[in-house]
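Justification of resources, computational component.

The compute hours requested in this renewal are based largely on the per-chain cost of generating structure records like the one below. Each record pairs the submitted sequence with a full structure-token output. That output is archived, and it is also reused by downstream analysis tasks.
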Amino acid sequence: MPLQQEKYSIYALKKGDTLASVATYFEKTQQEIKGFHNIFCEHSALIVYDFPYDLKQLYVFPQLHYKAIGVAEHLDQSTYLQHHTQEGTCNYSVEYVSTEGEKKTVVDFEISITQKGLFKEGYLYLIHKIAPTLINGEVTPNDTEEIKEKLGNIVYPLQVLVQENGKWQELIYDKAIKKRFATAKQEILEYNKGKLVSDLLQEAEKKLCYEERFKKMFQDNWLLGTIFSNTYRYYNHQQPIKETVKFALLNHVVPIAFDTEQTIGDFMPDSKHITINRNGISNDTRTREALEQAVGETKYDGTLSQKIDAKFEQKIILDIKTSNIVSIYLRASIDLQTPRSVRVKVAMI
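The structure output for this chain reads:
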């Protein structure tokens, strides 16, 4: 009778592995490792004192850390999670929910990501917006949002150059953006007047019509960073990746800095999906009082300036076989006089 896969996982033994080293690696006793393996193995592969010299595979508990449950075959000897070029086009829905006290705003949109080929500088990916932005379920609920939507669409298709190891290298500035802006500006002014319209156009022109400013606009873009830079990394289960990340938690305020740890989490053998977790707290040098003033908080309780209390958590589900991101979940929050939070869900459609 064939063995049930869910009863165990298989660990591929490497040169130099011993019963003692593997037991330490999996945080189990030698007897636990040996006893579990001997339940499922052939008689010739029984472990007595140490591994038989020709033993290639070790049966291990199905709920051990990532190397025990299937990810090892997708990592090289340096534990690097490899990037593979995406084939075809992947479509994603994005739900962005921002909360300010009792007020909640839900923004939905859809994008497609297509790999166009390998060039001398790296892989070129095109990002298109494939559905109108919905704000609380409505398409451009007012004239201002309609103008913002039209100006925002000028950046697409967004061209991203990615290195062979999966790292986001740079954005490519398409000179056609200037022409698209000129056309959009003419259409907007044909039906809209006033200072607000003029200010929106002036601000958009500064960001869209100058290459350096255009690239800077996406420099700390969380979604692009997650898709193209933060997934394919060197991992070690004993030493998580520690780094500072920035996330735009507050409108019109410089992104908040967080000290984070990124680790590989659960592996799901049936679906061949892997979880990547990133969690952190703020290390921002600004005080709570400074941020409250920046977002227009008029009340102040008289206490001394306090360190920011902000949290960041992120989970990526990655398809190991295709190297495509299946879904992303993010939640960031900050404790101000009016508490604020952002929750983002990205899902393949």
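The helical segments are 19-25, 30-40, 143-152, 176-191, 195-208, 211-217, 222-228, 288-294. The two ends are 39 Å apart (CA to CA).
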